[in-house]
Backbone:
């Protein structure tokens, strides 16, 4: 699987580790974006959540579970704003849809610069409520209603 845009630093296609990393004892799967020998970003999330149970997402019209829960995403500072984060989100949303998840949710880390994080998730197609929670249907993240381009 390849991302739609290479970073500004290189025109080598962004590749995903195969297979995705998952510890046998963990409910989480990690996606790793690699270009050449460099890890440019990672995303960790699960595909078997029911975010309605926590009550934290009650302001959303949640479809029936299962829901995907995006635990964390990190992109190396040298390649931020080059499409790596968006490509990780798109890969995660595609996997969530393939696994039958009806909603992708997460909580924004507000420990530093939440405004930049909020803008990132909005650009990816998420709806952000307050400064803490974000969520969307997988199709919305893959260009179904937001107008985003799909990765090829």
Residues:
């Amino acid at each position: 699987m390849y991302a739609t845009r290479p970073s500004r630093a290189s025109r080598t296609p962004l590749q995903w580790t195969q297979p995705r990393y998952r510890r046998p004892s963990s409910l989480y799967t990690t996606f790793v974006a690699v270009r050449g020998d460099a890890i440019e970003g990672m995303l960790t999330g699960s595909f078997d959540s029911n975010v309605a149970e926590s009550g934290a997402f009650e302001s959303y019209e949640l479809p029936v579970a299962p829901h995907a829960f995006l635990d964390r995403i990190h992109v190396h500072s040298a390649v931020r704003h080059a499409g790596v984060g968006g490509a990780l989100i798109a890969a995660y949303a595609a996997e969530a849809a393939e696994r039958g998840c009806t909603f992708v949710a997460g909580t924004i880390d507000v420990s530093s610069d939440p405004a930049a994080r909020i803008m990132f998730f909005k650009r990816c197609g998420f709806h952000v409520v307050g400064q803490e929670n974000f969520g969307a249907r997988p199709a919305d993240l893959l260009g179904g209603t937001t107008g985003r381009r799909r990765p090829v």
Remarks:
- The longest strand covers residues 38-49.
- The CA atoms of residues 7 and 26 lie 31 Å apart.
- The radius of gyration is 15 Å.
